[in-house]
Amino acid sequence: MATSIFTKIIAREIPCFRIHEDEHVFAFLDINPLSRGHTLVIPKEPAQTLDQLSEESAAALGRVLPRISRAILRATGATAFNILQNNGAMAHQVVMHVHFHIIPKYADGSGLGIQWPARALGADEGAALATAITDQLQ
After folding, report:
1. Which residues 6+ apart lie within 8 Å of 22 measured at CB?
2. Which domains does the chain have, with CATH numbers?
């Protein structure tokens, strides 16, 4: 994997406002926040997308995301938040290193705005897709 701004932050080549660090995870304030308290949580393992990440690093992220979220809510007074994680350029990933955004949402509208163009899932399509995905989990 190519060096990214996140690998440079982990290596302390670029300064940041660090929130949390342990053996597997690094968290810091986003320098272009959508709202007050917008935080990035990244694995130290260099992986571009979530599907490329080891189970060990994924589990470490899962353990700290709730704790960091609670700390952000208490520190900022926000009562709602989004967690966003994009995989690949087509999915709006800009930095090609796995990362989660914790984005507090406030009454003034700051935070993440979302469009959700849902469509209906037909019974035949749903059954076929569920079987195809389940087969790949084996």
Report:
1. 60, 64
2. 5-137 (3.30.428.10)
Q: Please, which residues bridge with residue 42 across strands? A: 26
Q: Residue written as tokens 């926000």?
A: 78
* Contacts of residue 10, Cβ cutoff 8 Å, sequence gap at least 6: 26, 42, 44
Prediction pTM value: 0.93
Series of mean pLDDT values for 10-residue runs along the chain (138 residues): 90 97 98 97 97 98 98 97 98 97 96 92 95 94
Q: Enter the tokens of residue 48.
A: 């571009």
Between β-strands 25-29 and 18-21, what pairing exists: parallel, antiparallel or unpaired? antiparallel
Per-residue H/E/C for the chain: CCCCHHHHHHCCCCCCCEEEECCCEEEEECCCCCCCCCEEEEECCCCCCHHHCCHHHHHHHHHHHHHHHHHHHHHHCCCEEEEECCCCHHHCCCCCCCCEEEEEECCCCCCCCCCCCCCCCCHHHHHHHHHHHHHHHC
**Active site residues per annotation:** 99
**Per-residue pLDDT, 24:** 98
